[in-house]
Structure formats: structure tokens, C-alpha cells
Amino acid sequence: MKFYFAPFHGISMRIFRGIFFSHFGGFDAVVAPFVAAVPHSQLKPSYFSDIYPLSDTGPLIPQIMGNNARDIADTAAYLYNLGFERVNLNLGCPMPKITRKKRACGLMPFADEIEQIVSRVCETSPVKFSLKMRLGMYSAEECINVLERVNNYPVDEVIVHARLGVQQYEGTVDRQAFQHCCQMCRLPLCYNGDIFTQEDFQSVTLQFPHLHAVMLGRGMLQNPFLLEEIKGNSIPAEEKNRRFVNFHQDLTNTYLQYYPCQAMVVCRLKELWKYFYRSARLSEPQLQQLLRQQGDEFLTATCQLAEKSFI
What we know:
By secondary structure, the protein is α/β, with parallel strands linked by helices. The chain has two domains: about 1-230, TIM Barrel; about 235-305, no CATH class. It is built from 13 helices and ten strands. Strand 7, helix 5 (about 140-150) and strand 8 form a beta-alpha-beta unit. The chain is globular. It starts with a strand and ends with a helix.
């Protein structure tokens, strides 16, 4: 069983990755937040500043978003020439401003166009090409249609978040629909979706014993020790508290050094505390009160909350 860390656009950027994985490791690969596919004439190393030159802890898989087969193939080939052996195509982002442009999950209803992308990439580059998708934008039949089209290509693996795009991150995952994907898919398959505890992981792997990998996302931000617990490590609350405090202090100080103004630091940390608040056992109203704070008031409050985490 392999473990992947999910991409979080606007959150799991280079600085966050470097610090997070120096405190909480153990992943077999990390999928980076997407870059837009562009024509060959626009490709240059500086375009990939978040991932190149590579300095993250552990293998990093760049992710591409787009709907033009030629641009995606050119971008994948360029990344391969930069030294990345594996590249992922984003077919899963459910945000309306993206899907209405027929990108990411918005491309899922168009299986023929996805096949054209896969065919072109496989023909033009030796890069290991994987797909990260949802069950579909509107219907789980979309995933089945895509799998029927790509099963015969040398796709490296398929990562499926067991939700529809229209759900975004609400509601529950559809394991029955994912079971149909398991039956249909002849490629290495990775499960993604609502693994927040060791028990969630055990339930998923018991139901789907032939998985190639599992991707952890929001569960790792809510509990950075989740992977260690899944692997059977029992960590005392005091140790969790100490390690989280050190991580949070390291992250805050690095953000303050890197970003040109405090407001940007506060903005970045607020996105993270939408997940971290569970570690500090805040209620939803308490979270909203925290998010209304600004500047030094917010930074002081989060440092104090970190001190209370996991205790």
C-alpha cells in the first residue's frame, strides 16, 4: 500500500510542503497543486517556480490542468525534461470557476476528449502519466466512461475521489460507485475521500483490498499525525502537542520572513486554521470568531491555540 499527499491549491505550496514534511513525513509521493497547461512557446523553468528546482521532502508529482491535448502533452514533456518522471492530470477540482471552463472535473463528461489527451501524452513523452478524477461531474457513469476509454493506454495510475463534482466537499463519499470503478479499472487504482481516522482507513482497505494506493488530504491537515497512526504508531498527546507547536511556530516564522506583509501571512494561516482548529478542539463558532481577528491579534491567538492542541 502506497500513501500519497493530496494537492491543496493555495495551501500546499513549496514553503508549506518543505516545513510540513520536515515535521510529518512518511508519504511515498506528494502531488503538487496544479499548473495550467500552456503552449510550448510559453514553457520555461520559471513558470514552474513552485516545484522547480525540486527541494521538497519526498517524491513530488507535478499536476497539470487544462483541456487542450497538445498543450497538456507539451507541458508534460517539458516537465519530464526538467527531471520529473511522473506527471498527473487534474480531472477532480470541483470549483465552479474552473469547471465551467470545461477544465478539471468539468472535463469528466467528455470522455472522448480525455482519451485524446491521454493518447497524445502517451505518444509524445515517456513520462509516467496519471489521472486524478472524481466519480464524475454530475454522474458516476462519467468515471466509468472515462475508464473504458483509458484502460488500454499505459496510464501510470488512476486516483479517484469518491464524490461527484457537484458535491464539491459536501455530503458523503459514494463507495458503491467506487466499487464499480474497481470492477471496471484495469489500471493501478488509488482511493481518495474522507479518510480522517485510522478506522476510516481500515474500513476503506477492507472494502477495497486490491487498492494500489490511498491518498490522504483534509484528514492530514486536521490531524497531521494521521499517517503515523494508520501505520500503527501510538503517539502520546504530549508528544503530539510538542510537535504541532514546533511545526506551527516554524511555519508562522517562515511565512513572516517570506511574505512581504503581515496581511498575507494571516491570510495563508487562516486557510490552514480552517483545518487546524479541530486539533485545538475549537467549535465552529469559536473558529469563526478566530477568523474574524486580524494582524497581531490573530497571530497571538493561533500561537496560544497551538499550545493547547491535542491535549
